[in-house]
Amino acid sequence: MGRLRTISLAAAVLASASCVRLGFRQPEDRGLDGRGGDRSSADRGRDAPADGALDRKAGDALGERLPHDGVPDRSDAPRVDAVRGDAKPDARLDAKPKQDTKLLVDLKPLDLRPPDQPKPDRSPDLKPPFVDLSKPTDAGTLGAVCSALPATGLPTARRSTSAAVHAQSGGDTIWIFGGFVSSMSIKNDLYSYSTSAGAWTSLPAASPPSPRERHVLAWDPVAPRLVLFGGQYGIVTFTHYDELHTFSLGSNTWTPIPKAGSWPSPRKDAALVWVPHLGKFLLYGGNNGSGASNRLSDLWLLALSGASATWSKLTPGGVPAPAQSGGCVVYDPAGRRLILFGGETQDGVNATTTYQYLLDSNAWQLDVTTSGMVPTTGSFTQCAWDPAAGRLVLYGGQGASGAPVAGAYLYNPGAQKWSALTLKSSANPGPRADGGAVYSPALGGLFWFGGRTGTVSYTNESWLLKLQ
Fold first, then answer.
1. CA quadruple 141, 145, 151, 157: dihedral sign
2. Alpha-carbon separation of residue 408 from 136, 230, 369 (angstroms)
3. To the nearest 5 percent, what fractions of the chain are helix, strand and coil?
4. What is the CATH code of the structural domain delimited by 16-63+144-467?
5. In this predicted model, what pLDDT tens digit does every residue of 162-190 receive, in sequence order?
6. For the chain, how far is it from start to end, CA to CA, in angstroms?
7. How far apart are CA 162 and CA 38, in angstroms?
8. Is 356:373 a contact under the CB 8 Å cutoff?
9. Nearest to 314 by CA among 25, 72, 56, 23
10. Cβ contact 151:23 at 8 Å
11. Residue 236's CB: how many other CB atoms inside 10 A?
12. Which of 11, 137, 364, 393 has the highest Cβ tally under 10 A?
């Protein structure tokens, strides 16, 4: 498991990727928390943090269902300033270009609002991605460039943090909050990483959420602000949170959002993604314990307005995804679909199936992969949606033994095909699981911070996996 696996597919030419290490590795903090037992047998073997209390209650139970007519409600969608387009990726990436012709497709958004609704604004500092159809995608060689970028002000080595990205033309800002540092410390600190400056900055903030790990963090491009939900805190017994918090950049202040109406149950290892054409967030799954009965498969839409929140539980049709947590979950704004790969159906049991939730039809579908190389592990990976390539990009994860694994993969949701990526760079992350990951438009690839390099060893390295 200590070396990166290079997988060759017979009768197919593999795509390539490069990994860029951002910053410098600090000595690992080998806590006495038995991390392998935690992920392969969740909720076990953690020591009490010194900087938080164990007196919080789990919160209210799952809220009453709201009516749903089969299509997500768009009537109250706010104006959106970061729409990246709605052209279908299959038409963009799988089409055969004319000979000696370089095709560039401008992915303009499709506005499905009623005529009397205002059209979403495009942010002045964001440009739509362009896809060069004259270049190969899943077949052929995409190329690889590897370079090391400096990073200063590094956060403490940790796992089980969560990341969010604010995309800007002058350079992205990537955020992380909290996470598990050692047997005596679960954090509630906030850091930002500037892709242009190559520097991490600690942001002491007023009224932060309590220390936690395995929560979700996302960026609200409308407000703009950070949004945090859920997570876990504890050692032998655990508190699972259903708290919702926002962070305002202007005031440098965290704001707890009061509960009202229907509300998701307390959970960790969920997924929260931004849905541009609705101007809302989509929450999927998670768990509130170690057994199969503690896994969740529910879907919720979250609409934020100032300091208030409205949760709407969805009742999708189709082939439902099994209740699982800690899987790779990304959102494809062009295809208007949530893509789910893997996760744990119970402690130590990894799923390796791929599902899509189609928003326009409010239905799940099971992807039957007939070709390609499916990743061997599906839990606690580093993954994100690459909008320029129209593909899901994934690295590493946790194996059945609980130890992190290596390996890079690409998923084409239109063709329902996985491809193993060949890493050509000398820089190599090696086994890695449970880092905070996002796609950075400014860096042009999958960025992740921290995670596990061994069963109970953590890192504060930042890596970039870039297709080219």
1. positive
2. 18, 29, 17
3. 5, 40, 55
4. 2.120.10.80
5. 999 999 989 999 999 999 998 789 999 99
6. 26
7. 17
8. no
9. 72
10. yes
11. 11
12. 393
Burial group, residue 368, by CB count within 10 angstroms (0-12, 13-18, 19+) = exposed
Residue type present at position 460? N
Kindly indicate the confidence band of residue 377, based on its pLDDT and cuts at 50, 70 and 90: confident
What letter represents residue 267's amino acid?
Answer: R
- Cα within 13 Å of Cα(337), Cβ side: 25
Reading the block at residue 368, the tokens are 């039957």
Return phi, psi of residue 90, to 5°.
Answer: -65, -40
Any idea where the domains of the chain sit in the sequence? Answer: 16-63+144-467
Q: Is 302 helix (H, G, I), strand (E, B) or coil?
A: strand
- DSSP assignment of 146-211 equals ---B--BSPPPPBBS-EEEEE--TT--EEEEEEEEEETTEEEEEEEEEETTTTEEEE---BSPPPS
Q: Going along 70-151, which residue ranges are E strands?
A: 104-106, 130-132
Structure tokens at 225: 């602000």
Instruction: Tell me the pLDDT tens digit for each residue of 304-363.
Output: 999 999 999 999 999 999 899 999 999 999 999 999 999 998 888 889 999 999 999 999
Give the phi and the psi of residue 179 in degrees, each rounded to 5. 120, 175
- Residue 42 to residue 349: CA distance in whole angstroms: 11
